[in-house]
Amino acid sequence: MLKMKTPKTGKARRELDKRAPKLVETGKKTLILHGTKTSGVLNNVLTQIYQLKKESAVRFSRKNEDVRPFESGGEASLEFFSLKTDCSMFVFGSHSKKRPDNLVIGRTYDHHIYDLVEVGVENFKPLESFSYDKKLAPKAGSKPFIAFIGEGFDSVEELKHLKEVLLDLLRGEVVENLNLAGVDRAYICTAVSPNRVFFTHCALRLKRSGTIVPRMELVEVGPSMDFVVRRHRLPNERLRKEAMKTAKDKAKKKEKNVSKDVIEGKIGKVYIPDQKVGEMALPNKAKGVKRERREAKLRHGEGNKHASKRQKEDSQ
Predict the structure, then answer these.
(1) 117 and 91 Cβ atoms separated by less than 8 Å
(2) Is 205 within the bounds of a domain?
(3) What pLDDT, in 10s, does the model give residues 134-147?
C-alpha cells in the first residue's frame, strides 16, 4: 500500500488547489532546462526565451544528464521535473556533433510526455543586436499577436505540428476580451521551406490613421532565428482523445410558464391569485369605518336598553 500524504498547512493546501484540475485552465507554465552539453548560442537562446516568458516560466541552470527526449527511459526525469514544478510545457536544449544547437519543445498531459518537436537553431540574432527606441520595448506579461505566414503550416505535417506547439508556448493565458492598448508585441513565423521556419519578435507601434482603428507598424526588437525541423512525435490517438475531453455544460434549469414565439420572442405567463376584497385590512382612519363603528355602537346601546327593560318587567 502506498502511503498518501495529506497537506498539514494552509499554504500546502492552497498550492495543491492551484495544481488541481479546473474546468477553465489557467496559462501553461514552461520549464526551460539544459542537456549534458550545450553551446554558447544555445545558452543565449534559452536565456532569451526565458526573458520572453519570465512570468510563466521556470528555468534550471544546471546540466541534466538523465534527460534524453525521444529515447526510451530518458523521459522519466523530464516527467519528474514537470510534476515538481507544475509545468505543462518544456524547452530542452542540447548540443552534439550530429545535432548542433538542438531545441526540443514538448508538451505534457497529466505530467506525462504528450508530444515532442525537435528543431535546430540557425542564424540566431540576440536582443542586443537590434537598435530601436527603448520606449517601444514590449512590457513583460503583455499579450502578443502571433502570425503564421506560408502554406506549409496548413499542408506539411511537421509544420502543422510545430504551429500547434509554438501557439501553446507563446500565447500565454487564453482570454475572451482584449484591450488593444495592451497589445504591444507580435511573433512572426514564416515558413520558408517545408522544414525551415523564420521566427522573429517585433514591437507594435500604434499611429494615427484618421479612423477609430489605429495604424500599426512593426519594429523588430529580437530575438530572431531560423528553426529547422528535425524530428517530431505526435501523441497517440487514445491519449489525444483523453486530453481533448472537455467538461459538459450544465443543463439549463427548465423555466416554467415560459414559451418562445418567432414574432413576439420570449412569452411568459403570470398567474395572479383571486383577490379577497372582503378580507382586506383597511386603515383605521377611513371615514367609512368610523361611521360603521358609530352605527354599531348605537345599535349595541339600544339592544342593551331593551334587555334591561325586560329584566325589570320580569322582576316585578
Answers:
(1) no
(2) yes
(3) 888 888 778 889 99
